[in-house]
């Protein structure tokens, strides 16, 4: 009897210890209140952080470690975005990939950074036609991905956001057609799957033109409470300079009614490694986008904290900042 009581005591202690450890390794829950992100105690939060490369890519290169996340934190980030490519998700296998995500979420929590999990496809989910093979997916696989994420991270408040689809585009009809109403229906399906599983992460919904154009939201918003919208306003989108009036017309107006999170911003000089349309610009873009977002309480995440993916933030694994790296590191640290 004494042995049984001792066993039960240790079992109870183990459960309590695990619960306490889980609590230590998660952050305050984030929710939507009006057009703001707030903590459970009502404190408004503006997120400013960094994208990393696909976790599978980082692990393969030997850089998926807490030391890497510490460097992200050292640059001033309070949020980190994990882009999960469908091809990598299949190649590594679901269980192995979930182990990577668990590690990343744990390290982020220990360092006080929230996490966005992003299904990193580019193309037309309705027709299942995509920009490149790495982005190939199906509606079934996409829905199943969010089912698994919802189940696996239920109750983990560090994973504050689920970005449902990285960059929707029909590429001028080359990838088929998709109306806003059809795209809206697909997103509402994903949100329903996530919420039916009891997960309270905030769904992030992107617009067309490679996650730039949110104009349909004005008259036909997503039919689900507690969500936020996404734009990727790279400097050459919609004709380039001057930016502010176009931004307000194309996506900025959303911030007056809903939370808005720019999950990719960044620039590259034309002479730099990896320079490509639509990211070519200079520090004037940085000045304009950081000012614009600060004035409107809009959150943002710089692309990308890597030495290869572009526009890159650093040039080597000593984390030597590139041109935009210097800019955004300074900008992030000024908010601390």
Q: What is the structure about, briefly put?
A:
This protein is α/β, with parallel strands linked by helices. It is built from eleven helices and 14 strands.
List the helices and strands and how they pair.
Blueprint: H1 2-24, E1 30-33, E2 36-39, E3 44-45, E4 48-52, H2 55-60, H3 66-74, E5 79-84, H4 86-92, H5 94-110, E6 114-119, E7 122-124, E8 129-130, H6 139-152, E9 159-163, E10 167-168, H7 180-196, E11 202-206, H8 208-211, E12 228-230, H9 244-250, E13 260-265, H10 283-296, E14 299-305, H11 323-334
Parallel strand pairs: 4-5, 4-14, 5-6, 6-9, 7-10, 9-11, 11-12, 12-13, 13-14
Antiparallel strand pairs: 1-2, 2-3, 7-8
Helix pairs in contact: 4-5, 6-7
Q: What is the number of helical segments per DSSP (H or I, 4+ residues)?
A: 11
- Gyration radius from CA atoms, angstroms: 20 Å
Low-confidence segments? 1-24
Strand order of the largest sheet: 4-5-6-9-11-12-13-14
Structural class, by secondary structure, is: alpha/beta
Helix content: 25-40%
From N to C, what is the helix and strand string? Answer: HEEEEHHEHHEEEHEEHEHEHEHEH
Mean pLDDT over the residues:
94
Span of the ends, CA to CA = 56 Å
The gross shape turns out to be globular
Strand content: 15-25%
Please describe the biggest sheet, giving its number of strands, its sense, and whether it closes into a barrel: 8 strands, parallel, barrel
**How many distinct beta strands?**
14
């Amino acid at each position: 009897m004494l042995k049984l009581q001792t066993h039960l005591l240790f079992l109870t202690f183990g459960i309590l210890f695990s619960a306490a450890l889980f609590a230590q390794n998660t952050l305050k829950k984030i929710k939507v209140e009006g057009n703001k992100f707030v903590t459970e105690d009502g404190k408004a939060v503006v997120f400013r952080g960094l994208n990393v490369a696909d976790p599978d890519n980082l692990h393969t290169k030997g850089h998926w470690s807490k030391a890497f996340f510490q460097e992200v934190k050292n640059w001033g980030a309070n949020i980190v975005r994990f882009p999960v490519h469908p091809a990598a998700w299949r190649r590594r296998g679901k269980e192995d990939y979930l182990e990577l995500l668990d590690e990343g979420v744990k390290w982020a929590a220990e360092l006080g950074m929230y996490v966005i999990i992003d299904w990193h496809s580019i193309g037309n989910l309705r027709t299942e036609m995509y920009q490149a093979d790495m982005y190939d997916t199906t509606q079934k696989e996409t829905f199943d991905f969010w089912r698994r994420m919802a189940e696996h991270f239920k109750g983990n408040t560090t994973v504050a956001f689920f970005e449902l689809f990285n960059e929707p585009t029909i590429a001028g009809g080359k990838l088929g057609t998709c109306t806003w109403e059809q795209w809206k229906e697909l997103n509402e399906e994903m949100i329903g799957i996530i919420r039916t599983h009891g997960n309270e992460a905030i769904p992030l919904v992107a617009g067309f033109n490679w996650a730039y154009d949110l104009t349909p939201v004005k008259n036909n918003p997503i039919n689900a409470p507690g969500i936020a919208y996404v734009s990727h306003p790279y400097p050459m989108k919609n004709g380039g300079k001057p930016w502010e009036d176009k931004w307000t017309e194309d996506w900025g107006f959303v911030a007056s009614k809903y939370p808005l999170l720019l999950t990719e911003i960044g620039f590259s000089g034309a002479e730099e490694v990896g320079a490509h349309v639509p990211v070519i610009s200079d520090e004037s873009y940085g000045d304009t986008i950081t000012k614009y977002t600060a004035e409107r309480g809009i959150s943002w995440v710089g692309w990308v904290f890597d030495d290869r993916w572009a526009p890159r933030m650093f040039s080597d694994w000593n984390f030597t900042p590139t041109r935009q790296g210097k800019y955004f590191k300074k900008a992030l640290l000024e908010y601390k």
